Every structure is written in structure tokens, then in C-alpha cells.
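pasting for ref
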Amino acid sequence: MSQTNSVFASARLADAQLRHWFLTCPRGLEALLAEEARGLGGQQVRETVAGVAATGNLEFGYRACLWSRLANRVLLRLTEAQVTDADTLYAAARVPDWPACFAVETSFAVDFSGSSREIRHSGFGAQRVKDAIVDRFRETCGERPAVDRSEAELRINARLYRGSLTLALDLSGGSLHRRGYRVRQVAAPLKENLAAALLVRAGWPELAGQGAELLDPMCGGGTLVIEAALMAADIAPGLLRKRFGFHAWRGHDPALWERLCTEAETRRAVGLARLPLLRGRDSDPEAVAISRGNAAAAGLADRLSFTRAEVTDLGSPGPRGLLITNPPYGERLGEQVHLKALYGQLGDALKRDCPGWRAAILTTDPQLGHALGLKAERRYRFYNGALASELLICSVHTREQAVAARALHEQRAAVHDAGITMLANRLRKNARRLAPWLRREEVRCYRLYDADLPEYAVAIDCYGDAVHVQEYEAPDSVPPATARRRMGEVLAAVERAVQPDARLVFTKVRQRQRGSRQYQPLAAEPGAGRFVVAEGPAAFAVELAAYLDTGLFLDHRPVRRLLAQMAPGKRFLNLFCYTATATVQAALGGAAESLSIDLSSTYLDWARRNLALNSLDTERHRLLRADCLEWLAGDGRDPAFDLILLDPPTFSNSRRMADTLDIQRDHAALIASCMARLAPAGTLVFSTNFRRFRMAAEVAERYRVVDVSTQTLDPDFRRDARIHHCWLIGHRSTS
């Protein structure tokens, strides 16, 4: 089989497998893009700055290229590596099998972003990645592909962030916001994906489904009206594009792509038949002509209406609809005066002609919204390029509706603010209670709140200046809208009481993780939420965004402190070691040597980082990847250990383990296996977070057992004494 045929065959076999994707977007669109990605079939979807990470098969990547209204680019991740300088950057960029990704006849370009102490210029970084790709081709094929920075057939995306290099293929090609219908444009036009985001925030998809009209009285080049038509008619925004980046990719599946395009064409034909009335109006006849030309290029010339009219002339609106517009921006004083009058005229026309409608106005000056004479019920922050803007959402009420709406709004606002105030007060109370202990013990990472109030089922942890909010998965009895509202109140209360930097607030939904899923990243962008924190003399690497667990169990802080006190001169064994934070504290406390065992390569890599952060010798403090159950059952070659930590999961059925582990069922046998490895005068520290755990009577009959659970709860966890249990266990033959 030829190399090319082999590549195609392996690509087809991998189509059912999950791949790692990153969808980029303008700032402010991340939450909307995440929701869209889930609707397109993405899994483990997670927002990050200017984009969304997800896993999914090849069909998901194609659907994102074809159907995403919000993304700029669809990136297929190839590899991730730690780099320190230009040489390690080059070495990392040579690792992917580039000739298996694209043919030597294909032109390519490298888009590089990020910097480090050694790599300070994106152009230099792009050059080193390009050199690595070219050299890999020369080594494999004997020739090199051409580089074309402006019209490359395939683009390689390289991102360097906090020493981590991520390489990806840009399967979208040019930015997806360029739909292909904008043949002419007005000055300072809205980008198509920003227009789509405004429409989503304004609730247009739901209104369109109800047959509502749409009107843009200052339509400019018609982008808002055309994007609204694409949504209402279920038209894939990528249908007009002739070429994507994946057309130059050797993993491309033409049959799959053709099937998705055929499906999209069918949906377009059905959707056009139910398209509601969409109109654009503008006082500038040139803008009207441009709008009509763009509509024709989109295949919607006979479906949309564009006419010349003043902003005070809204035509003959129907009983229900959305008025959405992007008024001109004024920078000089005279322009501001004119704009205030323009907003006033628009507000008067809305109240006169459009009772029962919704209005959505994008403005760079929220104060101008007051001139509308309409109260903004919701405000959404966007960036139009580098320009900060707000989308004001207003309802145009009849007199009767206005009275009812005002009463309902006041009632909801009172309840909403009462919840925020109640939670913020609890956070302040907890902070005051913990403050003396935090200062005395110099604790920098602690739990501030753990579902103290039944309405707010979250855990709020502080890691230095960063705040980590874990939302416990809501039961089915709680509607999703209620859960989202409560989470918004939680974040508002955190902002009010803690006043953190918004960039240092990280949120997750905590739910049961089964099998290997507990080790999988939550699709966060590499490096997001990565910090080094202090605990006494130790430094630990934590990940506040990438994984469900952060790498540091805060409730085990006293256990780690106890181990450090018991460790001097001892041989220490850490089973199910996780990220080896207990090993670090024992080693810094004076342990002569240690062995830390875990089955997860992810956690062991993390453990290596923790050992390196604390300058610990990995020959004295060894890490071993193994099934702890198998290792304990095997022939022991190590001398007996003086100190053992046994902190197993409550339940595990990892495919890599020989057996399942149920801590309630198996703890007696597990403890016996550990005691067989324990020196006569040694101590086993056994800990579990299973709330309903009951120690088997046979353990206390066979060994000396001391329950130290209450002594291993610091003030930030004493509210719930069942959060973990801890015992010191020794041989009965010792005094």
C-alpha cells in the first residue's frame, strides 16, 4: 500500500475516534460558541479566552466548518509539548508526521501566537516551526513544500502559552466569518459572526420560529438582516464557501463532507419556504444598494427587502418582531449630540409603531441608551474589533404591558438581589471567621464556602488570588434555567464579597467521573488556569481550568502536615499518590526516601512537576506507574516502609486496573496488604472521602487503630465532619 493510501485508510479508521478541537472566536462570544459547539456534537466543551475547546469525531469538525455562525477558525490539535527555547521549539515542531498531514505539492503557512523569555517574537516562532516542518519533509520525501503566507492551501496554527506549545491544523482555511456574500461593504461593517452573536443574544432564533418579523432601520451593508435570514431559514453559513483548509489535508473524507453538504442543501430548501418578513432600511441610498447586492450574493435577493427611509419611518411593522441595529458611532462632541437626537427619534418611532416588539441596539456608549426612552432589560458586552460595545435589549410595551412588566421586573430583581446579598454576606462571614487562622497558619489555599446555603450548591475555593468555583451537578428536579440563574448569582456574590480579578475566576460543574474519564482534561486550552501555589514550605502546581480536580485536595492539608511531622528519617510509601503532594510534604519534612505509586500517567507527570518545583531528588523519591492493587499483591522487593499513606478512590473500575475497587467492600483486605509492607514500628495513615464509610470490626481487632478524623479537619472544612475519615494504624505487637 502506498503511503498516501495508508494515510487515507488510517484516517477513515480514526473517523469514529474523538479528536481534540479548538474553535476560535472574537472575545465575548465564548459562551455562545460553547453552546453552539455542543449543538453540533462537540463533547467535553469548555470555554477559554477567545475560543472553545472540545472533543469530537471528524463529523463534528466538518459540521463546525459548515454550520458555525460564531467561530473564526476550526483547529484540529496535533500535539502539545513543553518548550523552553528555540531549539526545543524546533524539536517539538518536528514530531508530527507532517507528510502524513499534507502533500509536498501543497503550499502552507504557519500562524504563530504567544511568546516566552527566549521566544519573544511571533515571526521568529513561526520561522522555527516552518523550518521544522520543511526539514521533516526533506527527511521523509526528499523535497519540501512551498510556503505562501497569503494564499496558503493549508495553515498550521502554533500557540505558545506558559511554556506549552500546541500545534494544530487549521481545517477552516480562511476565517469562517467571511461567508462569501459580502461583495461590497460600507465603512466599519459588522463582522458576520459578531452579527450572528448579536442576533442570538437578542433571541432571534426563537422569535423567528414563532414567525416574528425583523427590521434593521440603519442596515448599512445588510449584514444583520442577511445573517438573520440565514438563521431563520436554517441555512448553513459555510455553504457559499468553495474551499476550506481541510481540502488540502490528507485526512479529508470527501464522502462525509459531501453527505453533510447535501443535508445542508436540503435544510436550506425547506427553511426558505418558512422565512418570515425581514427588512432593512437606511437613509443612505448607497448603503441600500450595497445591501441588495450582498443579499443577491447570498441567494436571498427575492427574500429580503431593502429600502431607503429615515430612522423615524419604520414602515408598517406587524404585531410582533425584533428591531435590531448597529447605529453609527460618534467620537466628537457634535457627533454625540447628533447621535443622542438619533436615539431619541428611534425610541419615539419604536414606541409609536412597534408595541409588543423587542429592540436590540448595539452601542459603544451605554449612556446613549437613555435617549431611547426605553429601559434596557438586559445588557451584553461585546467587542466590535477592539471597540468595547454593549448590546441593549429592550421590550417595547403597550401601556398595560409596561405596568405589568415593571411590577414583574421589580419582583424578580428583588429576589435576585436578595439571593446575591444573602450569599455575599455568607462569604464575608466565612472570610471573617477564617481570617485569624489563615494569618496564624499562613494558609494561602483554602475553602471559603461549601454548599452552606441549600439554594447555592457550590464549593468556592481560594488559591492565592485565584477563585475556583465548583458547581455541584443539579438534580433533575432543578430546571436548567434555574441552575444557570443561581450560578450567575454565585458569581455575582463572589465578585461582591471577594472582589477577585475576573480573569482569575474559574468555574466547573462537578459530576461523577467514571473510569478513565476522571483523568481526562475538560477540553480547556492548554495552560489555562495553571498556577504554582504555596502550602507551608511546599510549592504545588495546580490546574484550575483543565481538569475536574485541581491537583491539590484542600481537605487533606492537615493529613499532609501530619505526614511531614511523622516523616523525618522514614521510608515513605504513597499509594494512589495522585499528584504526590503528600510525598512532597513528607520529603520536605525529612523523609529519607519515598515511593509514590499511581496508575495514571497524567497524575505521575503532574507529580514529577511537583517534585521538580521543590528540588527533590527523584532517585531518592521515586515515582512508579502501576496498579496499586497488583503491586501490593506482588512479591515485595522493597524493604518494609516506616510510613505509608493509603488514600484510595471510593470506587474505581478503570479499564487499566486488574480489578474493580470498592473501598467499603475492599478496605479490610487493602489495609492488610499495606500492613504486610509496614515495618513493625511503622504507621499506616488510612484516609477516605466516602461519607458513609464504616470501618470493619476485623481491622480494629487485628491492628491498633486510632481515629484522627476530627484532628485532620482544619477550620475551613469543619462545617461537614463527614468530608473525610482518617485513621492511624499500627501493628499490635509494637508498644
